Amino acid sequence: MNERQTAEWLMERDDFLILTHVRPDGDTIGCAAGLCLALRGRGKTAWVLENPEATSLFTPYLEGLTAPEGWSPDTVVSVDIAARGLFPENARCYLERVDLAIDHHPSQEFFARETCLDAGRAACGELIYDIAGLLGPVTREMAVPLYVAVSTDTGCFVYGNTTADTHRTAAALMETGIPAAELNKRHFRTKTLKRLRIESRIVEGMELFDGGETAVAAVDLAMVAQLGADERDMEDIASFVGQVEGVKNAITIRELRPGTCKLSLRTDPEVLNASRVCALLGGGGHAAASGATVEGSVEEAKRAILWAIEQVRHG
Amino acid sequence: MNERQTAEWLMERDDFLILTHVRPDGDTIGCAAGLCLALRGRGKTAWVLENPEATSLFTPYLEGLTAPEGWSPDTVVSVDIAARGLFPENARCYLERVDLAIDHHPSQEFFARETCLDAGRAACGELIYDIAGLLGPVTREMAVPLYVAVSTDTGCFVYGNTTADTHRTAAALMETGIPAAELNKRHFRTKTLKRLRIESRIVEGMELFDGGETAVAAVDLAMVAQLGADERDMEDIASFVGQVEGVKNAITIRELRPGTCKLSLRTDPEVLNASRVCALLGGGGHAAASGATVEGSVEEAKRAILWAIEQVRHG
Predict the structure, then answer these.
(1) What is chain B's mean pLDDT, rounded?
(2) β-strands A249-257, A260-266: how paired?
């Protein structure tokens, strides 16, 4: 369904439960809150299913919107969920009865009865904004989580997925009077001291190969334990070394437990296909960003990925 | 003059020389390049005066636009220059004969015969975009430097100066087909290894006071010499410690030469007026970002600024 059909479809229904994805980010949470408020604005009953993995960075946007225990919905809507495997544990009971999926992932699995998909959108929040605008006026209250959705999925309008439409949506959302500067400060201009210390250790320990084109960074268990870092401190750490001037292939090795490491590879996809490299190690992903989990020490993981890069380069 | 009057004024004239400010940033360079190309697009002769301080980050945008030696203009236009004191050495001969100043600084000194000022714009580039659009179609070639102007002056749409209009301008510029992802990568997602090492040293050496609300970072001569860092590596270093979670007053001390230090203070202006603090040390600036140069060691500079903060707090 397109946005207009989706808005009409929503208007014909009531008693909504909105689902978000595992390891929830700003887009899924912001979409859920924005849609929930837009439906309530049209007199509907709407709730968001609690997501136990939501961090304190995003839970404030769900205040007053989380479904009460035992609430029985008539209409189940998923936002920003591409695949069945991305349903949180407590949402799995709805797997076979999602009435509508609203999404922007090209890998959408069409698990719902109806789907509103636009893979050209940088954030699912852009789609929800359009739908909310067809339901009624988009208020400041709705605009706050929708701005969080759109800005976080584009790294605050810096990533390559950002389009002219993304900026137009941001302009419209800002015009409702949202505290954009405060939201940007919270989501893009604040780092924990632990995170900065991890970054600092990465800089000190980073190794460069191929005349500086390939960088290898390692985060081992000892480092994480010593700094007392948690998952929030580690968010998107795989993109850190890619910013070093001249680096084209950025490798981040994270020791998950003794003898097991997670490899992340970020590349310029026109030079090296990251997905092909990681496939050689049993992993996969996108051409510009892929990963694999390998058995072995940090040192062994490093040798494995450097070997795999060589294979793809000369294969 | 407003934008329309300015466009008409420009159309009536020819043989333009465009001036940029000292320590040129993306806004002044992007404005100069964008305006120069827009004027040429209307068949005018237009050149940008060379700015000897322009770094390699920005000089590519001036390729083919730099005035030939001895070029004698009929019309002199300054872009993004707020004050007489901000004219580069080689532009001082034009101080008394600037025909038009286009600017967005509230501190504009009205040194030119005509002034087009809008202090509500995040970047001077927004103004130039509007003027260019009144002169004729804004091409991709003009849009590239104008996007650099608008994006760099807002930290890529993250700073508090960003408005709905800023996003609308960005949307229009992107629609001309500029390589925005590549420009963003260059200006916002790349750091030199030396810069990262300086940041890493700052994190390791940073001191916290007032239960973590005040942070003091120091960059001394030994550190800069040891890393072989230059001015490009130091750009906007004063904003680095302000990102630490919980920090409200961010102090950066940079040793300029033995016995002389530059202090930078970033604050939440509603809690502490940075300008009042720095005034006590002979400096000044804005309520949220100020500086002062003091005689003394790094340790003495630290004591001086902490003392000044106490005075303003209890004054």
Answers:
(1) 95
(2) antiparallel
Strand order in the sheet with A289-295: A207-209, A214-219, A249-257, A260-266, A289-295, A284-285
> Does the beta-carbon distance from B158 to A189 stay under 8 Å?
yes
Inter-chain residue contact B189 with A162, CB threshold 8 Å: no
Q: Do B32 and B17 form a contact (C-beta atoms < 8 A)? A: no
pLDDT-based confidence at B289, cuts 50/70/90? confident
A270: amino acid identity, one letter: E
Helices (H) and strands (E) in chain A, counts: 11, 11
How high is the pLDDT of residue B160?
87
- State the smallest CA–CA distance between residue A172 and chain B in angstroms: 7
- Determine the average pLDDT of the residues in A9-14: 98
Cβ contacts (< 8 Å) between B192 and chain A: which residues? 244-245
Condensed to tens digits (0 to 9), the pLDDT of residues B194-203 reads 999 999 999 9
Kindly tell me the burial class for residue A159, based on how many C-beta atoms sit within 10 Å of its own C-beta (0-12, 13-18, 19 or more).
middle
**Residue type present at position A28:** T
Q: What is the ipTM of this complex?
A: 0.87
Rounded distance, CA A172 to CA A279, Å? 42
Containing B305, the helix (H) or strand (E) segment is helix B298-313
Strand partners, A217: A252
Q: How confident is the model at residue B279 (pLDDT cuts 50, 70, 90)?
A: very high
**How far does the CA of residue B46 sit from the closest CA of chain A (Å)?**
30
- The sign of the CA dihedral B252, B254, B260, B266 is negative
Tokens of A40: 């309530």
How far apart (Å, rounded) are the C-alpha atoms in residues A251 and A218?
8
The Cβ-side half-sphere exposure at B259, using a 13 Å CA radius, reads 0
Residues of A in contact with B188 (CB under 8 A): 158
Taking contacts as CB-CB distances below 8 angstroms, the residues of chain A near B268 are: none
> What phi and psi values does residue A139 have, to the nearest 5 degrees?
-85, 170
Of A156, A172, A185, the CB nearest to B156: A156
Counting Cα atoms < 13 Å in the Cβ hemisphere of A35 gives: 39
Distance CA B48, CA B41 (A): 15
Longest dimension (CA), chain A: 62
- What DSSP state is assigned to residue A95? G
- CA gap A228, B70 in Å, rounded: 63
Question: pTM score, two decimals?
Answer: 0.88
Interface-testing mutation among B157, B206, B271, with chain A (most A C-beta atoms within 10 A): B157
| Domains recognised in chain A with CATH numbers | 3-188 (3.90.1640.10), 193-314 (3.10.310.30)
Distance CA B236, CA B240 (A): 8
Tokens encoding B215: 């942070």
Tell me how far apart the alpha carbons of residues A69 and A92 are, in angstroms, rounded to a whole number.
16
Whole-angstrom distance, CA of residue A224 vs CA of residue A192: 14
